[in-house]
Amino acid sequence: AGRCVVAVDGPSGSGKSTVSRRLAVDVGALYLDTGAMYRAITWAVLRSGVDLTDAASVAKVAGEVDLRIGTDPQGYGVTADGVSVDAEIRGAEVTGAVSAVAAVPAVRELLVARQREMITNAGRIVVEGRDIGSVVAPDADLKVFLTASEAARAARRSAEDATDVTATAAALARRDRLDSTRKINPLAQAPDAVVLDTTELGIDQVVARLRDLLNERG
Ligand code: C5P
Fold this sequence. Notes:
Blueprint lengths: L3 E6 L6 H12 L2 E4 H15 L6 H10 L2 E3 L8 E3 L2 E2 L7 H11 L2 H18 L1 E6 L2 H5 L5 E6 L2 H12 L3 H17 L12 E4 L5 H14 L2
Parallel strand pairs: 1-6, 1-7, 2-6, 7-8
Antiparallel strand pairs: 3-4, 4-5
Helix pairs in contact: 1-9, 2-4, 3-5, 4-8, 7-8
Cytidine-5'-monophosphate (C5P) binds next to helix 2, helix 4 and helix 8.
């Protein structure tokens, strides 16, 4: 089969990662977690000790770090300067700082270029993030925007992280606000995206729906 790019966007806790990976496995595509790239850059920025509000310094660190990410939906690794950061990028410290780092225009420019290059080389790939259908891959074969109620998203995240649901809800709301209101490439629904509310849907149902949509598009 030829080229096929699926863009999956949505807020945190909408089920993006689980659904995207499952879909990629099912259709034999690669998978790119762009959030993990922003997280790995954030890890490097935190390690460097530069001030998060100093955009020039943040951009400098981002430009210098050797970031690598796998595309196997069954398990991909992320390294920064040769250090495996898979666990660290999921920690509270990185999660609390990532929206600030991802709002720096030079960081986005750098990662969007990397993502486009990976997509071009992949051929068949499911890409998840916040700006994939709107900016990174506007010509994607299928664009999906996953949503879910705030309560459902917070419940899913706190189940995943074994954290308190009230604290998780507050952290999610804060991150969504920052990601949706930043000046450059905010979380956005592409006009031609299929919107799917997953509040009442199980993973199998969402994946089945996306497979149907892909088949319809040939
Ligand atoms: O998807 P995940 O929660 O891992 O994303 C972490 C953060 O990375 C988001 O909160 C957002 O600030 C940033 N991000 C982004 N653009 C993307 C993917 C993630 O700005 N395409």
